Amino acid sequence: MSPHKFYKHLLASLPLFSLLATLFVDLCHSQTVAKLCNHNDENTLLQIKSFWGNPPSLGYWDPNQDCCQWDLIQCNEQGRVITLRVSLSNDVHGPIPPFLDRLPSLDRLHFDNMYNLSGPIPQSIGKLTNLTAIVILGTNIGGPIPNFLGRLTNLVELNLASNKHTGPIPDFLGRLKSLTSLDLGDNQLTGHIPYSLTRLSNLSSLTLTLNKLSGSIPEFPPQKMSGLQFLGLNFNRFSGSIPRSLGRLPSLGALYLDHNKLTGDASYLFNKNNTVNKYISIGYNNLKFDLSKLDLPRLWGFEISHNLIYGSLPLSFGFLDPETVNVSYNRLCGPIPNGRRFKRANPDIFAHNKCLCGGPLPACK
Ligand SMILES: *[C@@H]1O[C@H](CO)[C@@H](O)[C@H](O)[C@H]1NC(C)=O
Ligand SMILES: *[C@@H]1O[C@H](CO)[C@@H](O)[C@H](O)[C@H]1NC(C)=O
Ligand SMILES: *[C@@H]1O[C@H](CO)[C@@H](O)[C@H](O)[C@H]1NC(C)=O
Ligand SMILES: *[C@@H]1O[C@H](CO)[C@@H](O)[C@H](O)[C@H]1NC(C)=O
Ligand SMILES: *[C@@H]1O[C@H](CO)[C@@H](O)[C@H](O)[C@H]1NC(C)=O
User: Fold this and answer.
1) Is the CB of 248 under 6 A from ligand 4?
2) Cα-Cα-Cα-Cα dihedral of 116, 118, 123, 129, to 10°?
3) What is the number of helices (H) and of strands (E) in the chain?
4) Which residues is 325 bridged to in the sheet?
5) Coil, helix or strand for 233?
6) Torsion angle defined by CA atoms of residues 13, 16, 21 and 23, in that order, rounded to the nearest 10 degrees
7) Strands 81-87 and 74-75
8) Is the N end or the C end of the chain the one with fewer CB atoms within 10 Å?
9) What 8-state DSSP symbol labels residue 122?
10) Given ligand 4 and candidates 219, 246, 248, 273, which is best to mutate, with the most ligand atoms within 8 Å of its CB?
């Protein structure tokens, strides 16, 4: 609540003084906040509200109040609207209005948790070249990820997660060189990861989780992608082997590759060259390699369940946190290192292997 609204609310609860209070508030208002909102921008916002049938959830877009004072709306010093955010408005039915380009100074466009917002991303958004962030998250917006987004080269954040997007990830997203965060998770995207995404050198977070993406995962140039901290490719249909470069990304702190169809070796993900502690999740694949010889670096998570991993648990395993490891459903054998430390661990994390023993499991013979 803005201080102004809060004040009104407070004073409204004192009916005796309400007349005085209203005068007082209006006086303060007219003194401190001159009409700031650009007239055209305010009209456009009211047209958006009317396009959506004046939903009750947008009641706070009140024409009697300066639009720069509306919650979640932000203006620059010239009174131009730079942030348009609508959140948790399930009473908004229908598409994104096709005339958002009438807010030319828009810097952040943010629609989230609007499950009845539907249709495609309108073409007019491609004209808003000052946009640095688009967040359309948790809506019924669908269709392909449109080409015109490639024109918005000032974008630092693009989040289209938990929508109904279909089709491939377009190659032109690779033109968005300023992106630090790209999230296309939880859609119905198909096809492979375009090569262009693997050279977006300012990316710190890439999330493609929960789609129907397939093909092999491309190599990521470690020199170019030196700032990548989070990579989420889990819950897809990726196949083939894990590219070796994923083990050499110097800042990678969290790697999620679980629930795919990956095969072969993954041992190179566990090298000690990284400076950061890692979370590595590669469960539910068809990975097949010998774990015995690995010197596990400090990991704050080690989820390798449901693979074909064989050999024994290396000594360095004994230093991992029992709360964040899971090696179940593999072909491991031999004693659990530092077994005493794992004595109280949930035995599930070791279940369905060839012949693990010690720790929470029956003693070794
Ligand atoms: C777009 O951003 C630039 C740089 O911040 C600014 O000079 C320009 O006025 C903005 N355009 C509009 C239409 O606000
Ligand atoms: C609107 O969204 C709510 C919450 O997701 C949902 O229960 C309702 O069915 C939706 N209405 C329509 C018409 O889609
Ligand atoms: C990448 O990030 C750096 C450091 O924040 C910044 O100086 C540079 O302009 C960014 N590159 C692009 C293309 O935005
Ligand atoms: C670790 O770094 C060293 C020196 O830079 C390099 O020779 C070695 O190949 C790297 N190991 C892995 C597994 O990348
Ligand atoms: C370990 O993974 C298995 C297989 O996915 C799962 O059933 C089990 O609940 C997990 N255990 C823990 C403690 O997370």
Assistant:
1) yes
2) 30
3) 3, 22
4) 302
5) coil
6) 140
7) antiparallel
8) C
9) P
10) 273
Assess whether the C-beta atom of 271 lies below 6 angstroms from ligand 4.
yes
Q: Residue 13: how many CB atoms within 10 A of its CB?
A: 9
Whether 298 has a pLDDT exceeding 90, the answer reads no
Residue nearest to atom 4 of ligand 4 (CA): 273
Residue 178 in contact with ligand 3 by CB distance below 6 A: yes
Amino acid found at 358: G
Return the structure tokens found at 252: 């990678």
Q: 273 burial class (0-12, 13-18, 19+ CB within 10 angstroms)?
A: exposed
> Measured between alpha carbons, how far is 212 from 335 in angstroms, rounded to an integer?
39
Say yes or no: CB of residue 115 within 6 Å of ligand 2.
yes
Which residue's C-alpha comes closest to atom 11 of ligand 3?
178
Residue at 102: amino acid letter = R
Question: Letter for the amino acid at 212?
Answer: K
18-27, 108-117, 244-253, range with greatest mean pLDDT: 108-117
Residue with the smallest CA separation from ligand 2 atom 8 is 116
Q: Which amino acid is at 158?
A: L
Q: Are the beta carbons of 273 and 282 closer than 8 angstroms?
A: no
When pLDDT is averaged across residues 182-197 and rounded to a whole number, the result is 97
How many angstroms does the Cα of residue 210 sit away from the middle of ligand 5? 20
How far does the centroid of ligand 3 lie from the alpha carbon of residue 51, in Å?
38
Q: Identify residue 329 by its one-letter amino acid code.
A: Y
Average pLDDT on 293-301 reads 86
